[in-house]
Design brief:
Helix 3 packs across helix 4. Helix content is 31%, strand content 35%. By secondary structure, the chain is of the alpha/beta class. A seven-stranded mixed β-sheet has the order 5-6-4-3-7-8-9, sandwiched between helices. It has a two-stranded antiparallel ribbon with strand order 1-2. Bound molecules: adenosine monophosphate. Adenosine monophosphate binds next to strand 2, strand 7 and helix 5.
Amino acid sequence: MTIDEALALIRTIPDYPKPGIQFKDITPLLLDRAAFSKVIETLSLHADASDLIAGIEARGFILASAIAIKSNRGFIPIRKSGKLPFQTYSKSYGLEYGADTLEIHTDSLDKAKNVLLVDDVLATGGTMCAAIELIELCGGKITGIITLMEIAALGGREKILQKYPHVTITSLAIC
Ligand code: AMP
């Protein structure tokens, strides 16, 4: 299984969750053991400079926790509003299909600093910018951002680099 064969399993669902959205569905890739393993192996190559792997709810959790195990690092959940039980920092942001709020536990980075940030899809970049801000509020530093797929036309990369020019963004597929 090559990485391109694995990524080819991501399917596009038109008009989900709203008309006009081309939803990138990674579930067929996750279902295939060899494809899932290849993707995690490839993404884990980017973990070197980090102490911890952060994943964004919900699909980012699947990838980030597997990368954390593979690279022998801890995992930080960045969750939707109201889901974390301890004290949180909170950040609201715009999305390709709506608006949302992300939260992180205030003590997520008490013992470490460098964080690799993981999600499945980079679209407008609003989610990633909110997550970076939360990591920085905790006193952390983003060593890199990795996604399976980037929707180039939505300009997420440019948005992130405008605010955080030092951050390296790696997407395994660009569409
Ligand atoms: P954005 O903040 O616009 O970059 O959106 C990225 C977040 O929304 C990620 O957590 C993705 O899982 C999700 N998302 C946005 N657009 C899509 C899409 N077309 N297909 C799948 N997920 C998407």
